């Protein structure tokens, strides 16, 4: 029996475009797409409801399970922004190809406006986003093999660059 194929994993902050880009990259590479946030919502309901009723630790446990299932697909996997905070997830990512998507605060401001994201439910959502990004950035950098910025240009240009990078990486 052969080893499972390594997944191509997209990590990064809220609003960086992991889901949108991940879907397109998966299609271009003819690989399955798995989004951990979507998987949690399908199985357990809205993330904001999980946070409200059970708290962030419960959500993180559900997320950890979704990450393990996603990595097992060997496809393109989009992780929730905070998934890298889990040490077991970071350890698991060592066996996969990991791409960090970044975005400038000035750009993400429009993407997170009127958001239901539980961690951004403050008067200054952008300020909170910047705090979260600053705290998580060392973990993103620790596990990422490549970084692509989604702040400018057409989304397809980022997709094309990732597909090209994935083609040059050893699987």
List descriptors.
five-stranded parallel β-sheet; 171 residues; alpha/beta; Rossmann fold
Blueprint of the fold:
Elements: E1 8-11, H1 18-29, E2 33-35, H2 36-44, H3 47-54, H4 56-72, E3 76-78, H5 87-93, E4 97-102, H6 105-112, H7 125-143, E5 146-149, H8 155-168
Parallel strand pairs: 1-3, 1-4, 2-3, 4-5
Helix pairs in contact: 1-8, 2-4, 3-4, 4-5, 6-7
3D structure, described in words:
The structure is a single chain. With 171 residues, this protein is α/β, with parallel strands linked by helices. It is built from eight helices and five strands, in the order E-H-E-H-H-H-E-H-E-H-H-E-H. It has a single domain, classed as Rossmann fold (3-Layer(aba) Sandwich). The protein is globular. The chain starts with 7 loop residues before the first strand and ends with a helix.
Question: Element order, helices and strands?
Answer: EHEHHHEHEHHEH
Q: Biggest sheet: strands side by side, in what order?
A: 2-3-1-4-5
Would you tell me the overall average pLDDT? 87
> Which CATH architecture would you pick?
3-Layer(aba) Sandwich
Q: What does the main sheet amount to?
A: 5 strands, parallel
Gap between N and C termini, in Å? 17 Å
Tell the overall outline: globular
Helix/strand-derived category reads alpha/beta
Helical content (DSSP H or I, runs of 4+): 40-55%
Number of strands: 5
The fraction of residues assigned to DSSP E strands is 5-15%
CATH superfamily: P-loop containing nucleotide triphosphate hydrolases
CATH class label? Alpha Beta
CATH fold title: Rossmann fold
Radius of gyration: 15 Å
> Domains counted in the coordinates: how many?
1
Number of helices: 8
Multimeric status of the protein: single chain
Uncertain runs are none
């Amino acid at each position: 029996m052969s080893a499972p194929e390594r997944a191509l994993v997209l990590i990064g902050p809220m609003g960086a475009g992991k889901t949108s880009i991940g879907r397109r990259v998966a299609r271009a590479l003819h690989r399955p797409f798995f989004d951990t946030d979507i998987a949690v919502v399908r199985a357990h309901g809205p993330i904001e409801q999980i946070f409200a009723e059970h708290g962030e630790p419960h959500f993180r446990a559900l997320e950890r399970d979704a990450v393990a299932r996603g990595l097992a697909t060997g496809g393109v996997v989009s992780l929730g922004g905070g998934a890298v905070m889990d040490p077991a997830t970071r350890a698991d990512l060592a066996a996969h190809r990991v791409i960090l998507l970044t975005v400038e605060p000035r750009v993400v401001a429009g993407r997170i406006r009127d958001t239901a994201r539980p961690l951004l439910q403050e008067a200054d959502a952008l300020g909170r986003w910047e705090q979260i990004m600053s705290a998580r950035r060392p973990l993103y950098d620790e596990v990422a093999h490549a970084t692509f910025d989604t702040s400018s240009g057409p989304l397809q240009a980022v997709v094309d660059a990732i597909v090209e990078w994935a083609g040059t990486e050893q699987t």
